[in-house]
Amino acid sequence: MTTSNSAPRRALRAIDIFFLVVAAAAPLAAIAGNGALGVLLGNGVGMPASYLISGVVLILFAVGFVRMSPHVTHSGAFYAYVRHGLGARAGGAAAFVAIVVYLMMVVGSTAGFGFFANVFFAENLGFDLSWKVWAALSLLVVGLVGYREITLGARLLSVLLTLEILILVALVVSVFWPSSPAVVTFGSFKLSGVFSGSFGLGLMFAFCSFLGFESAAIYTDEAQEGHRTVSRALIAAVLFIAVFYAIAMWAVIIGFGEDKVVAAAGENPGTLIFRAFGLYLHPAFIVAVEFLMMTSALAATIALHNAASRYLFALGREAMLPQALGRLHARLQSPHIASLVVSAITSVLVAAFAFGDADPLMTVLSSTFGLAALGIILLQAATSLSVVVFTLSSRREAGFLFDLTIGLLATAGLAIVAVLVVMNYATLTGNLGLLDYAPWLIPLSAAIGIGVASISGPQSGVAGKRAA
């Protein structure tokens, strides 16, 4: 096995990164899962507006990120921004929280693939293999793709994501088609609809649907124009997710009728999207949706595996983890050692759930993505806070008040959502008993990160410079 310590090859275009991050957000699964739960437990018909409100907060976050990005010269995604603004110890905390979050999402997404693969093959081909077998096959495929150069994964995800988007577009078109029996109403965007039911829960589920978009920043070193390419991909991803999810969810609500959709979700939120397709499209589309739910989970797992690998790679290069993790394959220019470590850790965790005979959706996916939702939102809030601190320290620069306002608004919005997740964590995960205490992994990981950062070198960033 040959290795190299050189910088990664800058091969990714903005569109490649866009596919990587939107695939990680898994649009079809997000609408089928978080969207349906938001209708049932959150603000009902106001769920589309919740996506737009979440998008506004995350656009503010993205703008602050973009404005700060020219000043951040080191790699490592959001933790690099936290380090630059708040100091090395805060950066170390963010880095180790991010590692735990992405590893957990890989585990959850793997279990999700196992579940949907079992459903698709059992119902349509009579081939009934346990989710555990499919999950093992998924880990093998994802490991092979992650080991190779990033452009292979980007090309594969572009195909899978395009199919996923097209089938949702088919549902939207069929509902809004002039001859459709659906009656187009706008209650989803009126204040009475937006704030109906539990607005806070609806907003929480909407934010959880964006999980994965933040991984754009991880690919800075592999982007053709560095931060400029990543910035374009990040903003495009947030805009697309917010608008597309809102329209798709609006179509589902109109499809059932504003007065009936909450009751329909109450029958079984997990099948709401399938029933919507059954009402307006040929039964073959239901089979296609079952297939694409499976490929959506696979695409998300590949994207999340890549993200986790690059966090380990960045920390290995900076000696915050074993330096072998920071090596590149001499020919493929991939962080192959980091990828193998991610494969090994996630395989062990998936095996532990499998041997415990855990339910792949209600236990594995719920617990891991519930923890990830809290961790990612806290990371985003910390990044926004670092933008605020950095802006205050460089107030002579043009646009000071604009940058400060953007940073404060984004930080406040993300902090509110973090509180909502903490207050409703059991609702988000589905009351999993002992696993509902998993959020304690976040402060534990942060404490380890602070310790590692304290040992590995002097403080850096604005906060560190002021302390010095």
Automatic annotation (TrEMBL):
Record-annotated membrane-spanning stretches: 12-37, 49-69, 90-117, 129-147, 159-179, 191-213, 234-257, 277-304, 337-356, 368-392, 404-425, 437-456
Q: Which UniProt keywords apply?
A: Cell membrane, Membrane, Transmembrane, Transmembrane helix
Write down the membrane topology.
Multi-pass membrane protein
* A GO term, aspect molecular function: transmembrane transporter activity
What GO terms fall under cellular component here? plasma membrane
Q: Mind telling me which Gene3D superfamilies this protein's record contains? A: Amino acid/polyamine transporter I
The cellular location(s) given in this protein's UniProt record come to:
Cell membrane
PANTHER family, alphabetically?
AMINO ACID PERMEASE, AMINO ACID TRANSPORTER-RELATED
Q: What is the recorded name of this protein? A: Amino acid transporter
Protein source organism: Rhizobium lusitanum
